[in-house]
């Protein structure tokens, strides 16, 4: 009788440890660079800068080696940041995950550093998955993937690539998007058509200019690229800054992109997208999860989103969850997130704590731990 109870007791102990560990992670995320219980109880991971190549493409990455590697590999994909893999917030997150046993790989993604996101980033994430699951091992291993904000689309599409899909155990998507057209509509006009009647918060004013910067590289005219970058950066610094001179010198393609970004009529969005240069329109479609065959995704999906996100409405994560087979994706709605920034108020952290418990459980369930 006593022996028959042992598995249940051990399972209960593992669950309690997981819940406690998730609480320590939440406290460390809230603390930032300040002291925390997790920092006092654990050693930081060792960071190693690496270089690797695949099919003629060269990459750099940081790998955070935990003192006790017990949760397997996790590829952490950064969002828009000029500091790339060395963004202090990203470094802090990688160190937190390393302290609880993940071996964290943070690839440098040039397009997310210079705001020129494209399907190039999808290929780079596929290559990172390939490296993490095949380098230095006789047999392929598995890895988890985590991404934030505008990096969620490329990361999710990469995880569906037929070459690496079986190697991805689960994907964590924080504040990500699902439908590119509806995202552009919300950012530019404030209308969220996926909200099922619920009112989304007003969009963050900087978002439209971030979108403009992210697509400049698709314009063939160098003068248009320069003028639009000047407009975007000037308006980021001052929403009322004069730009009439630059607008008047734009060519047809530059005007089409600027008109989409500055449009405030929700009904015009599709027509304005149709007027974009063909290469740009193709890229937007290729980076749109709602236009992908989602049945190619073999990984479990963990969605974490703040209900008051002013950059990407929570409706995108809700729709992505509903687009997958029941049980494949779980959504954790948490007041602890204002887009991707973590609240320091512990009273906001219930949803995020539950998400962390789930992520730790998946790392054990999928054999990430050892």
TrEMBL record:
GO molecular function annotations of the record: hydrolase activity
Key words, A-Z: Hydrolase
Protein name per Swiss-Prot or TrEMBL: Alpha/beta hydrolase family protein
Classification lineage: Bacteria, Pseudomonadati, Pseudomonadota, Gammaproteobacteria, Oceanospirillales
